[in-house]
Design a protein that fits this description.
9 strands, alpha/beta, 38% helix
Amino acid sequence: MQNMLLTELGQALVNGNLTDAELQARTDTQSVLQILPDANVVKVGGQSFIDRGRAAVFPLIEEIVENLGRHKMIIGTGAGTRARHAYSVGIDLGMPTGVLSVLGTFVSMQNARMLHYLLAKHGIPFIEPAQFPQLPLYLEERGAVIFFGMPPYTFWQKNPEVGRIPPHRTDTGCYLISEVFATKSMIFVKDEDGLYTADPKKEKNARFIPRITVAELLAMDLEDIVVERAVLDLMQNAESSRSIRVINGLVKGNLTRALEGEDVGTLITMD
């Protein structure tokens, strides 16, 4: 009786082999539900931004507050320099990638808690992965939430192709939230205007790239990219979050412009 209530695809999934390529293809015929299409994921860089302290963070906090009630924000945090120190010690001690992921997670969490305390008087909550079912309520009530950007893979983090540094870090974790919830935008707040052909802090002749596709960017094979390469890999199979924007958060008003859909910073798209 139960199988009679299932669709043809449902019956195939119940009775078939989930590794069958033809069956897998049939699961992609229905459009994906957009869960939070009015929300924006805002990733605040760790080393590029939070590590700069009061001079960088306080003006951004003010801009976030100015946008409460106007734009819904899911704010993720990077890990930054302290995570790099933890990685270096962990690697020296022979720790595997999964353990290094745990160390990076706690540094990202520290940064999230600091932003939370700075926004506490505005009622902006800090949430952990177990609290994500309450995310829509927090967004509706307070207009923003703060979470740590490191994906909660911890020991289940896959090994990279080279070395032991976790390949999926805070850029990736924030992007995945944007993709899964089908948010309005994915904004990376950094300390540079966006993507360059090289690190502009080290190369004076680095050229700014205002707009580029993932395919074009991968073909350039740049040594330095403003976001984690894993984000570009994930974008190639994205169903919802098919573009990301990188902005300079040190410039007052850039976050507001990005939230309002203006052409600021660098836009990286799949199309």
